[in-house]
Amino acid sequence: MDISVVVPLYNEEESLPELEAWIRRVMEANGFSYEILFINDGSTDRSWEVIERLSESNPCVRGVSFRRNYGKSPALNTGFTRAKGDVVITMDADLQDSPDEIPELVRMIREDGYDLVSGWKQKRYDPLSKTIPTKLFNATARRVSGIHNLHDFNCGLKAYRNKVVKHIEVYGDMHRYIPFLAKNAGFNRIGEKVVKHQARKYGKTKFGLDRFVNGYLDLATLWFTNKFGIKPMHFFGLLGSLMFLIGLLAVMMVGSMKLYHMYSGHPYTLVTDSPYFYIALVTMILGTQLFLTGFIGELIVRNSPRRNNYEIEEEITR
Ligand code: UDP
Ligand code: MG
C-alpha cells in the first residue's frame, strides 16, 4: 500500500464527509493505493456513525473508536501502530489542512529521501492570540530540539516514512514535538513544506491557551528525558554537588567566624546569629535530597526494560 492517512478526530461530524471525499479525489487522481484511518477520540457527537457510513461506501476507510476522550497524541499513536502504507500522512479532521498537499509530501519522502516532512502553515488563518504565542513556542522548540529548519512543529499535516511512525511513541501531549521524537529515534532527515491553511469551517478548536503552558512543560520533559533519561544521577548529582559545595563554604564561614570571634576578644556570639548558618542548613538539606532523587532515578532506570533499547539501523552477522 502506498499511503496511510491518519486522521485523529474529536467531535468533527460535519467535516468528515467532505474530508473523506476530498482525500479520495486526490488519491484517485494520483493513482495511489491508500487507506484512511479515522481515529475517533471519544467523540460525543455522531462522528463515529458518519465514519461507519463512509466505510460502507469506501472500502479504503478504516476506523478506531475510543470509548472516551484521551487526546490527540493517543489517537495518533493508535493510528501509527495500525498504519500499513509506505508513507504515512497525518492530518487534522477539521478541514484546516488541505489533502491537495499530499502528492508533494509523498514525493518528498520517496524521492528527496526525507524521513519526515512537516507542514508549515506560513500564512495562518487563526486568531492572533494563537499565532503570536505559537511563534515563541516554535522558537523555543527549535533551540531545545536542535532542529533549526522547522518553523511549525505542531502542524497537523505531516508525512512520515513508515518505519519512523513504528519507532516513535507519541503519548500525553507529545504530538507537538513529533519531529523531536523522530530525531531522538535517529531519524534526522527532517524537512518542511509550506502548506495551505484554512480557517476552521465547522465546529470549534479543541485546545485552549493552556496548550502553551503544557507545551513548554512537555518540552522541558523531552529535553530532560532525552539528555538524562537513562543517567539521572548526572543531572541530580551535579545539582546536589553544587548545593553541597555552597553548603561547605557556608559551614567554613560559620566556623571560622566563630573561631575568630572567640580568640579576638569580641563579645560572645551564637553560630545561629550568622546568616551563613542558615545557608549551610538549607543547601545541605537540598543537596541530600537531590542526591537521593538521583539514586532513586538510577534505581528506576536499572529496572526499566528500555535502558538498553537502541535504534539499530543495520547489522552484519556471520
Ligand atoms: N483532536 C482529537 N482529540 C482531542 C482534541 C483534538 O483527536 O482531544 C483532534 C481534532 O478533532 C482535530 C485535531 O485533533 O482533528 C486538531 O484539533 P484542533 O483543530 O481543535 O486544534 P487546532 O487546529 O486549534 O490546533
Ligand atoms: Mg484545527
Mind explaining what this structure looks like?
The protein is elongated and about 95 Å long. The chain has a 7-stranded mixed sheet with strand order 3-2-1-4-6-5-7, sandwiched between helices. It is α/β, with parallel strands linked by helices and 318 residues long. The chain has 2 domains: 225 residues, Spore Coat Polysaccharide Biosynthesis Protein SpsA, Chain A (Alpha-Beta Complex), CATH 3.90.550; 70 residues. 49% of the residues lie in helices and 12% in strands. The chain contains 10 helices and 7 strands. 36% of the residues are buried. Bound molecules: uridine-5'-diphosphate and magnesium ion. Uridine-5'-diphosphate binds next to strand 1 and helix 3.
Secondary-structure blueprint of this entry?
Blueprint: E1 3-9, H1 16-30, E2 34-40, H2 47-57, E3 61-65, H3 72-82, E4 87-90, H4 102-110, E5 116-120, H5 128-145, E6 158-161, H6 162-166, H7 178-184, E7 190-194, H8 210-228, H9 232-263, H10 275-302
Parallel strand pairs: 1-2, 1-4, 2-3, 5-7
Antiparallel strand pairs: 4-6, 5-6
Helix pairs in contact: 5-8, 9-10
